[in-house]
Amino acid sequence: MINKCLFPVAGYGTRFLPATKSMPKEMLPIVNKPLVQYGVEEAVEAGLTDIGFVTGRGKRPIVDHFDINYELEKEIEGSGKEALLRNVSNLIENNNFSFTRQVHMKGLGHAIHCGQNLMGDNPFAVVLADDLCIADEGDIGVLAQMVKIFDQFRCSIVAIQEVPDEDVHKYGIIAGDDLGNGLFRVHDMVEKPSQDNAPSNLAIIGRYILSPDIFAKIGHTSAGVNGEIQITDALLKQAKEGCVIAYKFRGKRFDCGSIDGFVEATNYVYENIYKKGKE
Questions:
Q1: What CATH number does the domain containing 234 carry?
Q2: Total-model pTM
Q3: Is the peptide bond before 34 cis (omega within 30 degrees of 0)?
Q4: Quick one: CA torsion of 190, 191, 194, 197, rounded to 10 degrees?
Q5: pLDDT tens digit string along 53-62?
Q6: CB contact at 8 A, 160 and 246
Q7: b/e per residue, 123-142, with b = 16+ CB within 10 A?
Q8: Cα–Cα dist 106/128, whole Å
Q9: 3-state secondary structure of 46
Q10: Number of structural domains, the chain?
């Protein structure tokens, strides 16, 4: 069983300055709910009830969001506004939340390694909150899909999608043997390659399930692109020594780390989820 999920949320969110000067990018709202809550709800739907956060300076609002606010709740007690907090209150009451800090910003691989004390010697999921994933109508979420695949292969799983060739330099790109049903056994993985050097157009997005030996692999990984410790380098070691499965998931994904993606996600959620909930 896998029941742990890690959220690396220590980044600065510089693409959204000045909005993120004093507010975490993960707390930016898609309509009326912060990005990070969408990710936590997706994790909980997949049965991941131990939620860990790797935070940094200025990230206190994330900690406060997943805690009781006695003054606010007393103020709206007995009013129709109580219902607006019901979802996040249920998350707080029915799941476990823990927090640690990434003191030095050394990349995603380093951030995940900082979460070892929260995840322990267990398989765990990783969610990058600024990748918003919305399930197709009537389907399960991306993490729930990946948990089923982990139960079958018992190794690290990465979510992938096809991207335009001109965008491969923005992502970790995989190459692998096609197993059918959207599954690939990874044999190569390159972080942010040039278009000429990309092994495919299959890009890793912000959903992972990692076996616990990933921590040792990260610990022996040198800094790579931009002087950061890349999770793709550690995953490639796993792929060379054993097995990493890439999964072309079902559903929609919005890059909410970019302004264009954030606006696109807001418009989609408003038209297809929020308004329908009001009908």
A1: 3.90.550.10
A2: 0.94
A3: no
A4: -10
A5: 999 988 999 9
A6: yes
A7: bbbbbbbbbbbbbeeeebbb
A8: 16
A9: coil
A10: 1
